Amino acid sequence: MPDERGGGRNPAPLSPSVRVVLAEDEAIVRLDLKETLEEEGYEVVGDTGRGDHAVDLVGQLDPDVVILDIRMPGLDGIEAASRIAASHDAAVVILTAYSQRDLIDRAIEAGALAYLVKPFQRSELVPAVEVARARHREMRALTDQARTLSDRLEARKAIDRAKGVLMDEAGMAEADAFRFLQRTAMSMRESMVDVARRVLDEEFRPG
């Protein structure tokens, strides 16, 4: 069974409460993260030290945010993020002790919307979570015309892949790649998903 623990004290609840699943294999780090999140008003509805259990918890608890360490037993954070992004509508934050560009790119390609490099300050955690939530809201707004969850997930994957292409080929930062797709969609009077697909089909590049 997953190592599930419910959230405890929550002295400053958000309105509405933001539900979080936390996966970190170092118990001390996991406890610190949980306490920090709860002090900031988030509701930690489940936590675990294994990547495969994290996927199970997300399926059971349907959280708003999932925080995943990149290195875990059972399933690494990148594969867990990929499985979660493929079947659930949640904002994913990746934790990593490694700042290599390729790992970060893989995490983004898998569906992560923000990341933190360990060790990080407690004050950096909430901004990372809120960046992920903001990007998640933006992407949902851009794909709301899709009628099914499957369509929304496919649209999000196309946008994520196009961002990766722009980051690799044009040397853009992730936020710049997202803004480029957004601005181009507005100027061309097309959806952001259509612009992303043009990038993936090599029909369109920044110039």
Topology, please?
Elements (H helix, E strand, L loop, with lengths): L18 E5 L3 H13 L3 E6 L2 H11 L3 E5 L7 H11 L3 E6 L4 H10 L3 E4 L4 H21 L6 H22 L3 H15 L3 H9 L7
Parallel strand pairs: 1-2, 1-3, 3-4, 4-5
Strand order of the largest sheet: 2-1-3-4-5
Q: What does the radius of gyration come to?
A: 17 Å
Q: How large is the count of helical segments?
A: 8
Into how many domains do the coordinates divide?
A: 2
Helicity, as a percent range: 40-55%
Named CATH architecture of the largest domain: 3-Layer(aba) Sandwich
Give the full name of the CATH homologous superfamily of the largest domain: Response regulator
Taken in chain order, the helices and strands follow as: EHEHEHEHEHHHH
CATH topology label of the largest domain: Rossmann fold
Principal-axis shape equals globular
Low-confidence stretches: 6-15
The first-to-last residue Cα distance is 52 Å
Total number of beta strands? 5
Largest sheet: 5 strands, parallel
CATH class of the largest domain: Alpha Beta
Structural class: alpha/beta
Mean pLDDT: 83
Strand content: 5-15%
List the main descriptive attributes of the protein structure presented here.
207 residues, alpha/beta, Rossmann fold, five-stranded parallel beta sheet, 8 helices
Please characterize this protein's 3D structure.
By secondary structure, the chain is α/β, with parallel strands linked by helices. The protein has two domains: 19-120, Response regulator (Rossmann fold, 3-Layer(aba) Sandwich); 145-201, Winged helix-like DNA-binding domain superfamily/Winged helix DNA-binding domain (Arc Repressor Mutant, subunit A, Orthogonal Bundle), CATH 1.10.10. The protein is 54% helix and 13% strand. It has eight helices and five strands. The chain has helices at 27-39, 51-61, 77-87, 101-110, 122-142, 149-170, 174-188, 192-200, and strands spanning 19-23, 43-48, 65-69, 91-96, 114-117. A five-stranded parallel β-sheet has the order 2-1-3-4-5, sandwiched between helices. α1 (27-39) links the parallel β1 and β2 (43-48). The radius of gyration is 17 Å and the shape is globular. The model is unreliable at 6-15 (pLDDT under 50).
